[in-house]
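Reminder to self: tokens first, then the designed residues, so the page reads top to bottom the way the pipeline ran.
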């Protein structure tokens, strides 16, 4: 029995893990690797997006508890491990001018406090690969931007024995990726395919909203199509956050597997080369034992970063 590889996916809110990269996580779990999700916040300020639950007494009484149960269910469906980082949702500010962020929220916490919390998880779980959001957060929610900032800071600090000396034994992850599952190119491809087939596309309004969205560089396409159904079940477990009749489920699975059978990622930083046409987040790392040896060399300063496309937020 070979030693598993370890993937840590850092997300802002419970439900983000199920909409961004969930099929890939199920794919790696099925392959025998270890996958852990970190939710930076409890999603306390999320709107209830499911019309069937808007007036639900349990939701009204205690949304955070409800969302913890939803997350536990999604975790079970995906077969992953899960850690709450313990910070409070910043909410999505709306209005003109935008209101200030609420006191004590994740986006306003001092960076060394949030970074130390994530460094602690990295040093304990010892991931070979970490995923997070790009410098735009994927979409401009303050918690998503902060998730990027904190992930970067923790990726850099986790292997530094002088950084956060009370947060565990140093560990250097080898690769950092950004989720690019929700790319404009993918939404466009679905919109065109559905329209061609004479089916109604739920993405017309997205196309309009995203017409100026810049396509990101996709470096890595994980062939996770077999796990799209698992991803949908995990998404539906976040019942307050998902309208089961909404756009998420507007694409028949066979169309999705036909048109876009992968989940896509953008390499941000790596101690091993990112090869053209990469289809595995663990590419270049070998098996778990070899990846552990590489991480030990990176920690000892014997390996250099050979790929760095990080743009600061
Ligand atoms: Zn979110």
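Designed residues (313 positions):
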């Amino acid at each position: 029995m070979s030693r598993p590889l370890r993937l840590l996916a850092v997300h802002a809110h419970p439900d983000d893990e199920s909409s961004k990269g969930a099929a890939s996580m199920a794919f790696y779990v099925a392959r025998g690797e270890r996958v852990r999700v970190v939710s930076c916040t409890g999603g306390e300020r999320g709107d209830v997006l499911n019309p069937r639950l808007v007036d639900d007494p349990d939701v009204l009484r205690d949304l955070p508890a409800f969302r913890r149960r939803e997350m536990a269910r999604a975790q079970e469906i995906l077969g992953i491990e899960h850690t709450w980082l313990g910070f409070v949702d910043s909410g999505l500010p709306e209005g003109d001018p935008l209101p200030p962020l609420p006191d004590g929220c994740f986006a306003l916490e001092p960076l060394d406090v949030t970074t130390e919390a994530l460094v602690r998880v990295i040093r304990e779980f010892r991931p070979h690969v970490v995923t997070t959001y790009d410098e735009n957060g994927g979409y401009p929610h303050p918690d998503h931007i902060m998730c990027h900032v904190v992930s970067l800071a923790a990726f850099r600090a986790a292997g530094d024995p002088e950084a956060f000396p009370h947060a565990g034994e140093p560990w250097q992850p080898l690769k950092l990726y950004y989720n690019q599952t929700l790319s404009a190119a993918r939404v466009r491809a679905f919109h065109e395919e559905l329209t061609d087939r004479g089916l109604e596309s739920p993405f017309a309004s997205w196309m309009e909203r995203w017409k100026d969205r810049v396509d990101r560089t996709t470096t890595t396409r994980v062939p996770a199509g077999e796990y799209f159904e698992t991803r949908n079940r995990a998404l539906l477990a976040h019942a307050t956050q998902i309208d089961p009749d909404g756009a998420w489920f507007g694409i028949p699975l066979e169309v999705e597997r036909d048109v876009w059978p992968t989940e896509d990622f953008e390499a941000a930083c790596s101690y091993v080369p990112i090869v053209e046409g990469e289809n595995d987040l663990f590419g270049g790392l070998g098996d778990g034992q070899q990846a552990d040896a590489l991480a030990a060399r990176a920690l000892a300063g014997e390996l250099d970063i050979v790929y760095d496309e990080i743009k600061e937020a």
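The domain at 6-304 is CATH 3.40.50.10320 (Rossmann fold).
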